[in-house]
Design goal:
Length: 310
């Protein structure tokens, strides 16, 4: 009987001691958990800081100022521009004017049809460099320097919703569409510049499909102007309204120099359409469509026929 009592007492004592042992273990573990949490927090903050602010633009530009909308400086021979984490500046798919020669002068951006009051967003993360009004040019405009090395300009706005030196993320609302400055109708004038030099936005942005052309655009000083011609033919207002000054440039000979790859796109022929009308609609050339589809000038199109146009 005594043995049974002894065993029972020992068992009860052991059971009672278990929570205390568990509490001691938790007490010893708590400082370790707090230290690990602090380490994780510091590492996370460092990672976020690196992703957001470790910016190639710091090595490209000589200074930071709020005076000049753009001031050209020496271009690098090549430079990889990240197009990830982008936002289309407007949801409009309608282009009204290409990059390049226009009315006897150079048009340094793309014009996209927007209405007064339409939302305009930052294309990439970066810092607002200029918020200003220019009566004989951009009207109310915004310049943003992005971490990927680009600067973007948004012109003819009706309202600016950011201030100079403000940090913005891709997709942040920065202004409203308008018709201010030298403008004949409400639209967004959109520029992309590298080291102050205007690059054709169509090299990187496809407004019709509301997308960028790739994760990266490899800028090459030796070939970017030729690539610009191709970009306007593929993603501009239309090949027939874009005067390149050199109509003998073949798509196949220049396209390999571009860093992006285009997916094949197709058009379903409707009644009454011709190769010429399809080329205008799709922003390409008659010769390009004929070559891609092995057609002749005498070939007849049938409703429902599928044509490859790039």
């Amino acid at each position: 009987m005594k043995n049974i009592k002894t065993i029972a007492i020992l068992t009860i004592a052991t059971i009672c001691s278990l929570p205390m042992m568990g509490q001691d273990l938790l007490a010893r573990q708590a400082p370790i958990d707090r230290k690990m949490k602090a380490v994780d927090s510091v590492a996370l903050k460092r990672l976020i800081f690196t992703e957001n602010y470790d910016s190639p633009s710091e090595d490209l530009y000589e200074d930071w100022n709020n005076r000049y909308a753009h001031r050209e400086q020496a271009l690098p021979d090549s430079f990889r521009i990240s197009l990830r984490d982008f936002c289309m500046p407007t949801t409009s798919r309608v282009l009204t004017s290409n990059f390049g020669a226009r009315w006897g002068r150079q048009h340094k951006g793309l014009d996209i049809k927007v209405y007064i009051g339409d939302t305009i967003r930052a294309a990439f993360a970066g810092k607002v460099r200029i918020v200003r009004y220019e009566g004989r040019g951009y009207g109310k405009y915004i310049v943003i320097r992005h971490h990927n090395g680009l600067e973007t300009i948004y012109g003819h706005l009706s309202k600016q919703l950011v201030v100079e030196d403000q940090e913005v993320r891709a997709g942040d609302v920065i202004g409203l569409g308008g018709n201010t400055g030298r403008s004949t109708g409400s639209h967004l004038h959109f520029e992309t510049r590298l080291c102050g030099v205007a690059l054709n936005p169509a090299l990187m942005f496809d407004f019709r499909n509301q997308d960028v052309v790739d994760d990266y655009y490899m800028f090459r000083k030796a070939t970017y102007q030729q690539e610009s011609v191709i970009a306007s033919r593929l993603r501009g207002v239309g090949g027939s309204s874009f005067n390149t000054g050199d109509e003998d440039i073949e798509l196949a000979s220049v396209a390999p120099a571009a860093s992006y790859q285009q997916e094949s796109r197709f058009h379903k022929v409707r009644k009454g359409e011709t190769i010429y009308s399809i080329a205008r609609k799709r922003g390409t050339t008659v010769n390009a469509i004929m070559k891609l589809n092995h057609l002749k000038k005498t070939s007849k199109l049938m409703p429902g026929q599928i044509l490859k146009y790039n």
